[in-house]
Write a structure and sequence with these properties.
Elements (H helix, E strand, L loop, with lengths): L2 H17 L5 H4 E9 L2 E3 L2 H11 L3 E14 L2 E12 L3 E4 L2 E3 L5 E13 L2 E9 L1 H9 L2
Parallel strand pairs: 1-8
Antiparallel strand pairs: 1-2, 3-4, 4-7, 5-6, 7-8
């Protein structure tokens, strides 16, 4: 698979996860995908799908702006910015959720991925969780 094709997989995977779209995930991630970000840890496609589905209603009017995306062999790197309206509860765990405030959230982030057979098999997503929570808690 060419770097260009892996770049498309990375772009589509990022957008699907942020927008809460679970249907394309099996075509983009391996069954044993492992990954983390400041607010999640997954060790399988099923766990990733559940996590993405839980975020589905928290954000609307989502805009993903990719600032830089590079793929070199089996590694990919993307820097991006997300703008979205915080319109539904953000579930942290079964006992904690943040109620929506209707504000536009802006978050800059970077993600590193590894590919196996053209799908993402591992990822690490970096962003400032405190900055995100601060925006969510503004009334």
């Amino acid at each position: 698979m060419a770097d260009k094709d892996r770049a498309q997989v990375l772009r589509r995977a990022l957008e699907a996860c942020i927008r809460g779209e679970v249907d394309p995930l099996p075509q983009l991630f391996t069954q044993d995908v492992s990954g983390w970000s400041p607010n999640m840890l997954v060790e399988s496609l099923d766990e990733l799908t559940e996590t993405v589905a839980d975020r589905e209603d928290a954000l609307t009017d989502v805009d993903v702006e990719i600032n830089s995306l590079d793929v070199f062999g089996n590694k990919g790197f993307v820097e991006y910015r997300v703008r979205a309206v915080f319109s539904g509860p953000f579930v942290i765990d079964e006992n904690v959720a943040i109620d929506p405030n209707g504000h536009v959230l802006v978050l800059g982030a970077a993600m590193v991925v590894e590919f196996t057979n053209g799908k993402i098999s591992a990822f690490r997503n970096y962003f400032d969780e405190a900055a995100l929570l601060e925006q969510m808690l503004v009334v």
